[in-house]
Amino acid sequence: MPIYFMISSHLDGGLGNMLFQISAGYAHSLRINSNFFLLEESENFRKNYLDQMKGQISKEYAQKTVISWKKYKNSIFSKIPVHLHENLELVKQGCFKYTPIPHKDNIIIEGFFQSEKFFKDYVNEIKDLFTFDKNLMGNNDKKLNSSKKKETRNTL
């Protein structure tokens, strides 16, 4: 049974790009009081996508883009619900400058969304959406503090 009110982001690129894409989509869903989902591709969708991309990009790259976000599904993206792929209207960001996302529901947004204007009103909600491993964060904090101490000693 389809969900009738949903927003999703087409995820492409590395983790940094995906974080921007999810942040923009999630903020848009909050802005219009909708639901945000990551889309689980069905076998049918995956086959159609690979057929559609034939001749434009390599099969290996197309397969990689279809599954790349899944390696974060049980960690950083674990709070984001996943739904089977729906036929949503595709809304593309035309370029790297800020162009507001149309005030519509049932869309999948595609682009890089690397402007804070897409999500600046929902920074706290977005920070709560992503889950970072506490051990990893602790190790990063230790390394950062150690680096800061070395830097301070070198400047004295």
Provide a brief overview of the structure.
This protein is an alpha/beta fold. The chain has one domain. It has 5 helices and 5 strands, in the order E-H-E-H-H-E-E-E-H-H.
Describe what you observe in this structure.
The chain has 156 residues and is α/β, with parallel strands linked by helices. The chain has one domain. The strands form two sheets. A three-stranded parallel β-sheet has the order 1-5-4, covered by helices on one side. A two-stranded parallel ribbon has the order 2-3. It is globular, with a radius of gyration of 18 Å.
Order of helices and strands: EHEHHEEEHH
Q: How many domain modules?
A: 1
- How many helices? The count is 5
- Beta percentage is 5-15%
Order of adjacent strands in the largest pleated sheet: 1-5-4
Unreliable spans are 42-46
